[in-house]
Amino acid sequence: MHFLADMRVGSFGSRAVGLLFRPLCSWMLLACIALVGPGCATLLHGTHQEVSFRSEPEQAKVHIAGVGTFETPYSLSMERLEPLEVTFHAKGHEPVTTRVERKVSAVVIGNVFCLILPGLLVDFLTGAAYELADEVFVRLEPIADSTRDPSRADPAF
Q1: Same domain, residue pair 23 and 99
Q2: According to the model, what pLDDT value does residue 137 have?
Q3: Are residue 108 and residue 142 in the same domain, yes or no?
Q4: How far is CA 31 from CA 16, 28, 133, 147, in A?
Q5: Model pLDDT for residues 42-76, shown as the tens digit of each residue
Q6: Which tens digits make up the pLDDT trace of 13-28?
Q7: Is the N-terminal amide bond of 155 cis, ω within 30° of 0?
Q8: Which terminus, N or C, of the chain has the lesser number of Cβ atoms within 10 Å?
Q9: Are 42 and 32 found together in one domain?
């Protein structure tokens, strides 16, 4: 009878709820941290990066497939997910195509140390795990005589 009286008063019931609630709260907190805070690279430097394009001579045209054409010098916020293929061209100069490769950023090490597998997954799928070169510089070589070979004229993009 004493047991039933305690339940009615709430002393046993609140103790039981406390014993079940604390571990549940701890697990919920850990789950929230793991789900809401993944991706050290995503949080620290994002999925885009500012890349500068420069050339010699200046005011050469730069073409990036799927992005557009612009004149150097120019800075552009680029997605880190894919490497870039960039073509520089200027009238009277040989066109130059270069590839801007991505490399794995040191920021993703935070996920490894924290054992946050979802964070690694998010960083690699969004491209935040990578970084591109901050600057792309190309020196365009003059064509010896562009009047003799019309195929070497300034391409139209």
Answers
A1: no
A2: 94
A3: yes
A4: 23, 5, 36, 68
A5: 666 777 889 999 999 999 999 998 889 999 999 98
A6: 555 555 555 666 666 6
A7: no
A8: N
A9: no
CA–CA gap between residue 139 and residue 10 (Å, rounded): 81
Q: What is the pLDDT of residues 114-154, one digit of tens each?
A: 666 677 777 788 888 888 888 999 999 998 765 555 555 55
Beta bridge partners of 77: 50
Long-range contacts for 144-152 (Cβ within 8 Å, ≥24 apart)?
A: 146/92, 152/94
Residue 46 lies inside a defined structural domain of this protein: yes
Residue 137 pairs in a beta bridge with 54
**Which domain range does residue 62 map to?**
38-152
Q: Calculate the CA dihedral of residues 135, 76, 60, 89 and round it to 10 degrees.
A: 80
Statement to judge: residues 3 and 76 lie in one domain:
no
pTM assigned to the model: 0.63
Strands annotated E in the chain:
48-56, 61-64, 68-71, 74-79, 84-89, 96-100, 103-104, 130-131, 135-139
* Inside any domain, residue 157: no
